[in-house]
Specification:
Distance between the termini: 91 Å
Oligomer: single chain
Radius of gyration: 35 Å
Mean pLDDT: 89
Number of helices: 10
Shape: elongated
Largest sheet: 9 strands, antiparallel
Strand order of the largest sheet: 4-3-2-1-6-7-8-9-5
Number of strands: 26
Low-confidence stretches: 28-38
Strand content: 25-35%
Helix content: 10-25%
Length: 456
């Protein structure tokens, strides 16, 4: 038994040491680490506890007072009542609340001038319930990623890791919400757009669990889905560069705007929201947006007007064939070297003259999709005349798609190539166009359509 006495004593000692570390040393170290972390933290607040923020700048002008709302929104309550830019305010607050003190430079500085704190460019007052702290921000520190700051509560000159770019140069304009027409993109059901080139009415509809757009005026046609989505994105992204609020200046500017270059009506539910874009003097490089009579006149980038002066051709579906893949029962393919007919039956493609031979379905599906989805790139002539100059009287390729009802047939003709494009005509668009010439090199020969085991 004595031979185990030393081992048992050692084990008891280790257990005792472990207990001491766990119950005494580790909690003490954790407490010390927590205390050190809190000491380095610039402000003792949590973001969800913030109930107010005031921005005072040395540039002059009234203080900007911000109040939080629901769902991370903010409102400017002074010097005017308006919505704040939630992202801009959120970035500012997070920078403040995550900021730490690198070191205490001066406990009680004899002069604040060397740190840019004598007349600080920005003073921020943060309120959290009954707690309040005012933070003065000064010059950039010894390295560009540091900033001198001083809390009103202790008057210490601090070197911090606060980002200068996010916190300094805040103005009423930079803190205001700049969305000119704040609409949820997915909720827009109808768009009417008038400009010098045309007036187009677009309407959204449901098709096989998808939200798609159609042109309802001046023609009934399927819309170019990417083009309409891009239009809506541009509408949502339209931002104010400056604001002209209600008052004499707004009245004076409104009087000289003249007729709008663009008018857009967006319908959400039963409510219409109207946007008008103006450029009274194109040489000045200034453009303006107006929504409602009581809203500001927004100064916007002049390129915004170009985004909304699309003609009908730019917004309509430019696919030339005019038939969807799932509508096709038969596709006839004719080139100057070969001809074959594909039949779609029982969810598979077969060749009309060899229906028992198996085809590579993925190869056929890809080829048919390329025919169906070929879009016009440029319009050559609106009303077709002589076809020979474009190689369309004896086309390089001709595709005829017959619908499942057996009565509807759509054609696509490809003629001469020029500069990577090919002259084209299709049933869905009147006129002659240029399209990408890739399809001419992607037409398979009959042998390449068969599976390896069924090659003739």
């Amino acid at each position: 038994m004595k031979q185990y006495g030393f081992t048992i004593a050692l084990a008891i000692s280790l257990v005792g040491l472990g207990a001491y570390l766990y119950f005494v040393e580790f909690p003490t170290e954790r407490q010390k680490l927590q205390t050190d972390t809190q000491a380095k933290k610039l402000l003792p607040f949590e973001e969800r506890a913030i109930t107010g923020l005031t921005v005072h700048t040395a540039a002059g002008g009234p203080d900007i007072v911000l109040t939080p709302g629901e769902k991370l929104t903010w409102t400017i309550t002074a010097p005017i009542q308006t919505d704040a830019d939630a992202r801009e305010v959120g970035d500012l607050l997070r920078a403040l609340l995550l900021g730490t003190v690198t070191r205490v430079v001066e406990e009680q500085a004899a002069s604040l001038e060397p740190f840019g704190l004598e007349h600080p460019p920005v003073m921020l007052t943060i309120v959290a319930g009954d707690r309040r702290e005012t933070l003065s921000l000064g010059d950039i520190g010894p390295i560009s990623s540091t900033l001198y700051a001083m809390r009103a509560s202790d008057k210490q000159v601090l070197l911090t890791d606060l980002p200068h770019k996010i916190l300094v140069n805040k103005t009423l304009t930079s803190l205001r919400r700049k969305d000119v027409l704040p609409l949820p993109q997915d909720a827009i059901e109808r768009l009417r757009m008038s400009n010098p080139k045309t007036e187009v009415l677009l309407e959204r509809f449901d098709e096989k669990d998808k939200k798609l757009w159609r042109i309802r005026f001046p023609i009934e046609a399927r819309a170019d889905q990417p083009a309409v989505r891009n239009l809506i994105i541009k509408l949502a992204d339209l931002k104010a560069l400056a604001f002209v609020d209600a008052g004499p200046d707004r009245d004076k500017l409104a009087a000289r705007l003249g007729p709008p270059l663009v008018k857009i009506t967006a319908t959400v539910g039963s409510a219409d929201q109207i946007l008008k874009l103006y450029q009274p003097n194109p040489s000045s490089g200034e453009a303006y947006a107006v929504t409602t009579p009581d809203a500001p006149i927004y100064k916007v980038n002049p390129t915004a007007i170009q985004n909304f002066t699309k003609d009908l051709f730019a917004l309509q579906d430019k696919r030339l064939l005019g038939m969807e893949t799932d509508q096709i029962a038969m596709l006839s393919v004719k080139t100057r070297k070969s001809r074959f007919v594909l039949i779609h039956q029982n969810d598979e493609w077969v060749l009309e003259d060899q229906p028992t031979n198996k085809l590579e379905q993925q190869v056929v599906d890809l080829f048919v999709a390329r025919v169906v989805d070929l879009p016009a790139e440029l319009r050559v002539v609106k009303d077709p005349g002589p076809l020979a100059p474009y190689g369309l009287s004896s086309p390089a390729a001709e595709f005829v798609a017959t619908a499942k009802d057996g009565t509807t047939a759509h054609r696509l003709l490809l003629g001469n190539k020029t500069s990577g494009l090919v002259y084209a005509m299709g049933s869905s668009l009147p006129g002659i166009y240029q399209a990408r010439a890739d399809l001419l090199n992607q037409i398979p020969d009959k042998d390449s359509l068969f599976t390896k085991t069924d090659k003739p």
